[in-house]
User: Fold 4-hydroxybenzoyl-CoA thioesterase from Bradyrhizobium iriomotense.
Amino acid sequence: MFVHRRDVQIQWGDCDPANIVYYPRYFSMFDDSTSVLFEKAGFSKQDLVHKYGLVGIPMVDTRAKFYIPSTHGDWITIETRIESIKRSSFEVKHDVYKGEALAIEAFETRVLVRRDPANPDKLKSAPFPSEMVAKFTGS
Assistant:
């Protein structure tokens, strides 16, 4: 299973007046982490567009469980992996650590999409390329 870890320092603008991270800011961090996961696996945004004909990997569902808050100046580690892959959809999991402690578990469902050849104004799901499946699942 391909896993990417990145360290993030909590910035002033991430926090609410109580000096804890305002929860939507985490979802922005998770979105960045998913993009970085694809890049580090060898599939840049340009590859997705030019090589595979995709226009994106939109999120169709997301949720998170928050265990430990973070504040301005804290360092967190976001560990991101694809948990499962279906025909065109896939499940992403982000485990956020504050030191050694699990602070957040977050989950995304995303879909590979491309322009519909029959109607380029519409989007349609696209099958997951086999080389991507192999890289992310290790099979």
The mean pLDDT is 95.
